[in-house]
Every structure is written in C-alpha cells, then in structure tokens.
Write a structure and sequence with these properties.
By secondary structure, this protein is of the alpha/beta class. The protein has one domain: Maf protein (Alpha-Beta Complex), CATH 3.90.950.10. About 35% of the residues lie in helices and about 25% in strands.
Amino acid sequence: MSTPDLSGRGFVLASKSASRRAMLDAAGLAYESLPAEIDERGLENEMVSAPADEVAQALAVAKAAAVSHIRPGDVVLGSDSLVVVNGQRFDKPSSRENAAEHLRFFSGKVMELHSAASLVRDEKVLWVGHDVARLVVRELSETFIADYLDAEWPEVGYCVGVFRIEALGVQLFEAIRGNQFTVLGMPLLQVLAALREHGVLPR
C-alpha cells in the first residue's frame, strides 16, 4: 500500500513527541511536526478541579489551536496525556529525584492514563477525542527504581508517568487494560477516523 500523499493538504502534528510521530509514521501518514508553545501548567492550574479527561482534551485543543494560528488553512493535530493515581494528577517529572518520587508513589497502585487528541483548522475545533487506559504498577523496589532511572533518564523526563512503554517502561507494570495506542500517548484509531471524516485521509 502506498503512503497517502498529504503534502498538498496541510496536515500538521502540533508536537515533537517521538512516540506520536512514530504512530503517524507507522500508519503511513505524511505530515509536518511543529511543537506548540503553550503554558500547559497554567492551563492545568486553571482547571485544577476539572476531571482529568476534560483537562487532557483542553490541552490537546490548546496545542492544536496555537499551531493553527500560525498555519492558516492547515489541519492541525494536537494531543496530550495525563496520569492520575489515587485521585492525584501527575505532570512530567521536573528532575530525576522527582521522577523517583513519582515512581515510589505509583508503586503497587493503578495508574489511569488519559490520552486526548484534537483537530483544528483556522483556529476552529473540528473534532476532539479521548480514551483512558489503566495500568497496574507492580511493587517497585528502590534498587529497581535506581537502575531503571540509570537506564532511562533523561528520556523519561519528557514522559508523563515516567515511562516509555516501548522501552524499559514495560517493566513497571504487571497488567495493562486499554488500547495500545492510548498507552503510547494518542487515541490513534479515533484520530484516523476523524482525519477521514474531514478529508485529510481517503475514506
């Protein structure tokens, strides 16, 4: 199957995320990658009492809208992921020690991973989607946490949940309940359906 040529249709991913780019690459999409410049923590603070799914969707829309502002006419895909454990939301770790603190808190608990995506064109929201996966974190020893961060830092510093499921992060879990693409950071099947709906991909 040939790769769909979207070069003339203006499709932009509002992210430099390696996992999200890898998903689009594997699906055979042509696109540009342009990271969004938004105040993620500020938006999260404004929505401190909102459910995690609403916050993830708002962030996905904000990222897509920010890039759409400088790319008129293009369809822009924004995406975001949030982690909730025991009712507490977690951002990306601010340091290696903060990452270790996150992992100690996650140990033996269920991690809810909310992944959202949005399509925006000319700053108008065309579509918003969301999915959630539940990952059961095994009991993590201090030795494992130290060895894990020796191997995975600083890469996991850019990852909410402090893991890359496609790498050593899979060793954090004893069970995963949910779609693999959601775990990777984007509800890809929903995204592809929305791209077909809005003419970016052929039906």
